[in-house]
Design brief:
heterodimer, A: 77 residues, alpha+beta, two-stranded antiparallel ribbon, 2 helices, 2 strands, B: 277 residues, Rossmann fold, 8-stranded mixed beta sheet, 12 helices, 8 strands
Amino acid sequence: MMEFAKKRGSSDTANERLHLVLMHDRIGTSSGILEQIKDEIIKVILKHIDVDADPEVNLTSQGRQSVLDINIPLKGR
Amino acid sequence: MKKPSHECQVVVITSGKGGVGKTTTVANVSMGLANLGYKVVALDLDIGLKKLDLIMGLENRVIYDIVQVLEGECTIKQAVVKDRRNPNLYMLPAAQTRNKEDVTEEQIKKLIAELRKEFDFVLLDSPAGIEQGFRNAIAAADWAVVVTNPEISAVRDADRIIGMLESAQFNNIKLIVNRIRPEMVKDGDMLSIEDLLNHLCIDLIGIVPEDTRVVISTNTGEPIILSQNSLAGKAFSNIARRFTKEEVPFMNLEHNDSFWEKLKNMGRSVFSSKQVG
């Protein structure tokens, strides 16, 4: 009945915030840039092929290297 | 001065953010290396905001400063201040009434080339920031130490500094995590060493726990490494040994638990075993 439920420490929040801010710092962008990239990419792709859903655009990191991960589901015939 | 016995290493201690413990690190690691028998000189490169002389407790012995050396007003030998506790240890003070822009990278390189002939270790206390003072400090170093605190703004600045050091072709950059509070890490309220290493992706050379005695050692000008039974002092002496390539295991900071912490944990385990039983 009485559980010492482990409350989520504030360091989890710190880690998430740091992760995002460091990825943007390293490539010299602000976090709003991802939405903009998403909009522009979909416009370019739509000129040539049908797209099934909104593209997923994520920044990830491999060590100190940042990677732009773009995933665009395409519509089949 | 006697000839050094080893090939000289020039190490810059830097951080980006101010107040994380660069100068304290320089003072203590310099003393630690001198205690190991190495001939050491610590340079205060924070021109205009000098503090190493105070932290080392040598402010009353200062006659000349580094800018006077660079401008040829005095010799290196005249300007270096000999430590009163360890004859292997010297300090070259910054100038208080000059600016960082009064010093060039070329001047620093020339000075350090001279110091290499006389010393086993040259430790450079970099100013905070990423401007000229920082560039001067890294211009002639063989490797770099980045000091940070387990706090997001310090880690962000450390990351920026690491990026700049990598651009400047440094391939040996080590991390010191200063002022960590193991009990807060345990409670999930402070970034852990693992967290910092995951973010910054460089090798660790030291973990220094928060220690109120550092304040006292700053007040008195006696580096904490000289006090017995201080965890921070022990941590700095371990760092000094790692500077000499000795493999020293990292301290187990769990021993630092307070009486109340232990009691709390004991209570917890008794309680949970009752739950299970």
